[in-house]
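Please review this pair:
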Amino acid sequence: MSLQFTDEDFQRAWGELDEPQLDGGWELFTETMGVKIYRLYDQETGLYEYKVFGCLAGCPPELCADVYMDLVYRKHWDGYVKELFEKDIDGQMAIYWEVKYPFPLSNRDYVYVRERRDLDVDGRKIWVILARSSPETACAEKSGVLRVKDYKQSVALESDAACGTKVFMNYFDNPGGMIPTWLVNWAAKKGVPGFLTDMQKACNNYKSYCQKK
Protein backbone atom coordinates (compact mmCIF):
# COMPACT_ATOMS: atom_id res chain seq x y z
CA MET A 1 0.00 0.00 0.00
CA SER A 2 1.32 3.45 -0.88
CA LEU A 3 2.06 5.84 1.93
CA GLN A 4 0.20 8.45 -0.11
CA PHE A 5 2.81 11.17 0.21
CA THR A 6 3.35 12.99 -3.07
CA ASP A 7 6.30 14.89 -4.50
CA GLU A 8 4.24 18.03 -3.94
CA ASP A 9 3.87 17.19 -0.24
CA PHE A 10 7.64 17.04 0.12
CA GLN A 11 8.17 20.20 -1.92
CA ARG A 12 5.59 22.06 0.16
CA ALA A 13 7.50 21.14 3.33
CA TRP A 14 11.00 22.14 2.25
CA GLY A 15 9.68 25.25 0.49
CA GLU A 16 8.86 26.72 3.91
CA LEU A 17 12.58 26.83 4.70
CA ASP A 18 12.86 29.54 2.01
CA GLU A 19 9.47 31.22 2.13
CA PRO A 20 7.26 30.58 5.16
CA GLN A 21 3.63 30.33 4.04
CA LEU A 22 1.79 32.34 6.69
CA ASP A 23 -1.09 33.91 4.78
CA GLY A 24 -4.69 32.95 5.47
CA GLY A 25 -4.91 33.51 9.20
CA TRP A 26 -1.58 32.32 10.63
CA GLU A 27 -0.57 34.31 13.72
CA LEU A 28 2.67 34.46 15.70
CA PHE A 29 1.89 32.50 18.87
CA THR A 30 5.18 32.66 20.74
CA GLU A 31 8.89 33.17 20.21
CA THR A 32 11.40 31.66 22.59
CA MET A 33 14.98 30.38 22.48
CA GLY A 34 15.24 31.39 18.83
CA VAL A 35 12.14 29.34 17.93
CA LYS A 36 9.11 31.01 16.34
CA ILE A 37 5.77 29.22 16.60
CA TYR A 38 2.80 30.25 14.46
CA ARG A 39 -0.70 28.90 14.76
CA LEU A 40 -3.82 28.70 12.61
CA TYR A 41 -7.29 28.20 14.07
CA ASP A 42 -9.15 25.21 12.67
CA GLN A 43 -12.85 26.04 12.52
CA GLU A 44 -13.96 22.43 12.26
CA THR A 45 -12.26 21.16 15.42
CA GLY A 46 -11.73 24.36 17.43
CA LEU A 47 -8.04 23.41 17.68
CA TYR A 48 -4.90 24.97 16.24
CA GLU A 49 -2.45 23.83 13.59
CA TYR A 50 1.14 24.91 14.24
CA LYS A 51 4.21 25.85 12.24
CA VAL A 52 7.60 25.99 13.90
CA PHE A 53 10.74 27.70 12.60
CA GLY A 54 14.06 27.44 14.40
CA CYS A 55 17.63 26.14 14.46
CA LEU A 56 19.45 23.31 16.20
CA ALA A 57 22.98 24.55 16.88
CA GLY A 58 25.83 22.09 16.63
CA CYS A 59 23.72 19.34 15.02
CA PRO A 60 24.14 18.64 11.28
CA PRO A 61 20.87 17.96 9.44
CA GLU A 62 21.59 14.37 8.43
CA LEU A 63 22.27 13.52 12.08
CA CYS A 64 19.01 15.24 13.06
CA ALA A 65 17.13 13.18 10.49
CA ASP A 66 18.73 9.94 11.69
CA VAL A 67 17.89 10.71 15.32
CA TYR A 68 14.33 11.71 14.44
CA MET A 69 13.80 8.43 12.58
CA ASP A 70 15.34 6.17 15.27
CA LEU A 71 12.35 5.02 17.30
CA VAL A 72 14.34 2.79 19.65
CA TYR A 73 16.66 5.67 20.54
CA ARG A 74 13.73 8.03 21.08
CA LYS A 75 12.55 5.85 23.96
CA HIS A 76 15.84 6.73 25.67
CA TRP A 77 15.57 10.51 25.42
CA ASP A 78 11.85 11.39 25.13
CA GLY A 79 10.29 11.10 28.57
CA TYR A 80 6.74 11.29 27.17
CA VAL A 81 7.01 8.00 25.30
CA LYS A 82 5.16 5.13 26.96
CA GLU A 83 5.40 2.75 24.00
CA LEU A 84 6.82 3.19 20.50
CA PHE A 85 7.55 0.68 17.74
CA GLU A 86 7.21 0.04 14.04
CA LYS A 87 5.63 -3.11 12.69
CA ASP A 88 4.17 -4.65 9.57
CA ILE A 89 0.38 -4.48 9.79
CA ASP A 90 -1.39 -6.15 6.87
CA GLY A 91 1.54 -5.56 4.54
CA GLN A 92 2.20 -1.92 5.47
CA MET A 93 4.80 -0.63 7.88
CA ALA A 94 3.09 1.50 10.51
CA ILE A 95 4.18 3.05 13.79
CA TYR A 96 2.42 2.64 17.12
CA TRP A 97 3.10 5.42 19.63
CA GLU A 98 1.61 5.84 23.10
CA VAL A 99 2.18 9.21 24.77
CA LYS A 100 2.06 9.81 28.52
CA TYR A 101 -0.42 12.47 29.63
CA PRO A 102 -0.44 14.04 33.11
CA PHE A 103 -2.87 12.63 35.68
CA PRO A 104 -5.88 12.56 35.61
CA LEU A 105 -5.92 12.66 31.79
CA SER A 106 -5.84 9.45 29.78
CA ASN A 107 -2.79 8.65 27.69
CA ARG A 108 -3.11 9.08 23.93
CA ASP A 109 -1.89 6.72 21.24
CA TYR A 110 -1.25 7.06 17.54
CA VAL A 111 -1.05 4.70 14.60
CA TYR A 112 0.67 6.46 11.74
CA VAL A 113 2.77 6.07 8.62
CA ARG A 114 5.80 8.11 7.65
CA GLU A 115 8.30 8.58 4.86
CA ARG A 116 11.75 10.18 4.73
CA ARG A 117 13.38 11.58 1.63
CA ASP A 118 16.94 12.90 1.38
CA LEU A 119 16.66 15.48 -1.39
CA ASP A 120 19.07 17.31 -3.64
CA VAL A 121 17.44 20.60 -4.64
CA ASP A 122 19.68 22.46 -7.08
CA GLY A 123 22.73 21.39 -5.11
CA ARG A 124 21.12 21.94 -1.70
CA LYS A 125 20.82 18.92 0.55
CA ILE A 126 17.47 18.86 2.35
CA TRP A 127 15.99 16.14 4.54
CA VAL A 128 12.20 15.88 4.74
CA ILE A 129 10.13 13.54 6.91
CA LEU A 130 6.35 13.37 6.53
CA ALA A 131 3.92 11.56 8.82
CA ARG A 132 0.16 11.20 9.06
CA SER A 133 -2.31 9.17 11.06
CA SER A 134 -3.44 5.96 9.44
CA PRO A 135 -6.94 5.16 10.72
CA GLU A 136 -7.29 2.54 7.99
CA THR A 137 -4.48 0.50 9.61
CA ALA A 138 -5.86 -2.36 11.68
CA CYS A 139 -4.54 -1.89 15.21
CA ALA A 140 -6.71 -2.63 18.23
CA GLU A 141 -7.37 0.23 20.63
CA LYS A 142 -6.33 -0.13 24.28
CA SER A 143 -8.68 0.22 27.22
CA GLY A 144 -8.08 3.53 29.02
CA VAL A 145 -6.06 5.03 26.15
CA LEU A 146 -7.61 7.45 23.65
CA ARG A 147 -6.69 6.91 19.99
CA VAL A 148 -5.66 10.07 18.07
CA LYS A 149 -7.16 9.63 14.62
CA ASP A 150 -6.33 13.02 13.11
CA TYR A 151 -2.58 13.65 13.16
CA LYS A 152 -0.09 15.03 10.69
CA GLN A 153 3.47 16.28 10.90
CA SER A 154 6.08 17.41 8.42
CA VAL A 155 9.71 18.21 9.18
CA ALA A 156 12.25 19.81 6.83
CA LEU A 157 15.93 20.04 7.75
CA GLU A 158 18.79 21.87 6.05
CA SER A 159 22.24 23.08 7.05
CA ASP A 160 22.22 26.55 8.61
CA ALA A 161 25.52 27.25 6.76
CA ALA A 162 27.39 26.81 10.04
CA CYS A 163 27.49 23.50 11.90
CA GLY A 164 23.82 23.36 12.81
CA THR A 165 20.42 22.73 11.27
CA LYS A 166 17.66 25.01 10.07
CA VAL A 167 14.34 23.41 11.05
CA PHE A 168 10.78 23.75 9.79
CA MET A 169 7.99 21.76 11.43
CA ASN A 170 4.26 21.74 10.69
CA TYR A 171 1.90 19.72 12.86
CA PHE A 172 -1.67 19.17 13.86
CA ASP A 173 -3.31 16.61 16.05
CA ASN A 174 -6.73 16.25 17.58
CA PRO A 175 -6.18 14.51 20.92
CA GLY A 176 -9.90 14.02 21.57
CA GLY A 177 -11.51 14.13 24.97
CA MET A 178 -11.67 17.23 27.14
CA ILE A 179 -8.19 18.74 27.15
CA PRO A 180 -7.84 21.85 29.35
CA THR A 181 -6.88 24.99 27.44
CA TRP A 182 -3.89 25.52 29.72
CA LEU A 183 -2.47 22.14 28.74
CA VAL A 184 -2.90 22.81 25.02
CA ASN A 185 -1.18 26.18 25.37
CA TRP A 186 1.60 24.70 27.50
CA ALA A 187 2.25 21.96 24.97
CA ALA A 188 2.66 24.51 22.20
CA LYS A 189 4.57 27.17 24.11
CA LYS A 190 6.82 24.97 26.23
CA GLY A 191 6.56 21.49 24.80
CA VAL A 192 7.80 22.28 21.30
CA PRO A 193 10.89 24.32 22.29
CA GLY A 194 11.51 21.70 24.97
CA PHE A 195 11.31 18.95 22.38
CA LEU A 196 13.85 20.76 20.18
CA THR A 197 16.19 21.17 23.17
CA ASP A 198 15.86 17.47 23.98
CA MET A 199 16.41 16.66 20.31
CA GLN A 200 19.61 18.71 20.33
CA LYS A 201 20.90 16.79 23.34
CA ALA A 202 19.87 13.52 21.70
CA CYS A 203 21.87 14.40 18.59
CA ASN A 204 24.93 15.17 20.70
CA ASN A 205 24.64 11.80 22.45
CA TYR A 206 23.75 9.67 19.41
CA LYS A 207 27.25 8.60 18.49
CA SER A 208 27.88 7.34 22.02
CA TYR A 209 24.51 5.53 22.01
CA CYS A 210 25.27 3.79 18.70
CA GLN A 211 28.69 2.66 19.93
CA LYS A 212 27.14 1.03 22.99
CA LYS A 213 24.50 -0.93 21.05
